[in-house]
Amino acid sequence: MKNNKREITGSELELAFRLCGIEKGDLLLMHSALSSIGEVSGGADTVIDALLNVLGEEGTLAVVAMSGQHPFDPENSPSTVGIISETLRKRKGAFRSLKPVHSVAAYGKKAKEFTSGHDISETNCGEGTPYTKLRDMGGKILMLGVDMNRNTTLHSIEDIMDSYYLENRTVPAPMYMKDYEGKTMTMRKFPPGHRDFLKFTSVLRRGGALTEGIAGNARMLLIDARMMFELGEKMLEKDPDYFLCNNDECAYCRGKKDARDNGAK
Hints:
alpha+beta, 7-stranded mixed β-sheet, two-stranded antiparallel sheet, 9 strands
């Protein structure tokens, strides 16, 4: 039987991205799900090329290249957060930051600047990481076919606010460290477990930090990073539990609250 599904073209995606507010020269950190868009002619590369065409020579496209592989190998450890992320990571000329788990890959004018220094930052998502650089450099976050629960940069706000439920986690030393074999690395303020970031969407909308659009079949959320940090810090200042869920059946969120209430450290 002939497949009559119409493929979505790169030019259609370019128009959708522009209408959503992505502009030439932007620094854009994207979370994505290719399947949510529909049948894209050319697949992940077409989505990437469409964004790069919109961003232009002065722009930079970045993705979270999260990997749970240990020891972490920046050259070969695959991104585990979608085919678009992995495709950009492997693109010739892309840079990848040096950090187990929360590494970032980027392509474009500011890619090297954006990804550099992650290995010497004190934490995975806090000050000096690409996530706070996004704020400092006036960047934007694009949620393409995924919801706010996939917004890794929100962990930066937890880090800055020193959220009580963050943990220290020890992993095998990454391969970029000298004589890494047999050594370990402790990641401070590591953000494991469950979150309820979905409710933050309405806060961003009311605060004017969010633009919404459609690309193919995918919903888009375009977020002003600096405004997001300001709004998120205010919410956590009012309620340190704000990003945790209220489901009593959630072992992580319920357990962290109980441990705090019982005086555990």
